[in-house]
Design a protein that fits this description.
Helix content is 36%, strand content 17%. The protein is of the alpha/beta class. It has a seven-stranded mixed sheet with strand order 3-2-1-4-6-5-7, with helices on both faces. Strand 5 and strand 6 form a beta hairpin. Helix 2 runs antiparallel to helix 7. The N and C termini lie far apart (43 Å).
Length: 206
């Protein structure tokens, strides 16, 4: 079952504030873009992903990511992360109301296409989610075909998605569960093996 994914992204200079000490202020923007680039490169190579829509605070600031084969649209003027997901979902459903739509975080630089495919396969058309490695956040939320995505991202999102009826996926999915918010997270994904964009950004910051 093919999936259309919504990926939100702040302006690179504003995103990932807790990572500022990891590479220094002069390299922060490049690192944020690199995290997204490696995430998106893995996503577009996954066999069951049909479309990827990047909902950006400033499309011009992330325009280079379109080279990876994703569509880019501007986020709505008001609202936070969940509103960005709903905005992207609405845009995708205008073309296919019966689609399976997913919400994916943009900071998964170790992501392997196989883990994303395994998650989609395990979901099997159910509304389902992947918790982060700490078990409290959410890295991926999938809708049922034609049904509302109903994103509930934010503090304690894994529990919020479970309470709203989404099924927690059980497969290990190590690279899909490893998002990056802190320097410790960055060290963790480097041990897993990050994509080329993140590796180059870290090397340039040394």
């Amino acid at each position: 079952m093919d999936v259309d994914l919504v990926v939100p992204m702040k302006h690179p200079r504003d995103g990932k504030s807790r990572l500022r000490g990891a590479v220094g202020p002069d390299h922060h923007r490049a690192l944020v873009l690199a995290l997204a680039a490696d995430t998106l490169a893995a996503v577009v190579s996954a066999g069951q992903v049909r479309r990827v829509l990047l909902v950006a605070a400033d499309p011009e600031a992330v325009a280079e990511l379109a080279e990876l084969g994703v569509e880019i649209t501007r986020e709505p003027p008001h609202g936070g992360l969940n509103e960005a997901f709903r905005h992207g979902e609405a845009q995708l459903r205008r073309d296919d109301p019966a689609a399976v739509v997913g919400a994916l975080q943009a900071d998964l630089p170790a992501l392997r296409a196989g883990d994303l495919t395994a998650a989609i396969t395990e979901a099997a058309g159910r509304r389902a989610f992947v918790a982060d490695r700490q078990g409290t956040g959410t890295t991926l939320l999938l809708s049922a075909p034609g049904a509302a995505l109903d994103p509930r991202f934010g503090l304690g999102s894994a529990a919020a998605h479970r309470r709203s009826g989404a099924v927690p996926l059980k497969a290990p999915l190590a690279t899909l569960r490893s998002d990056v918010d802190t320097a410790d997270d960055l060290a963790h994904v480097r041990a897993l093996g990050v994509g080329k964009h993140t590796a180059e950004a870290i090397a340039a910051a040394r």
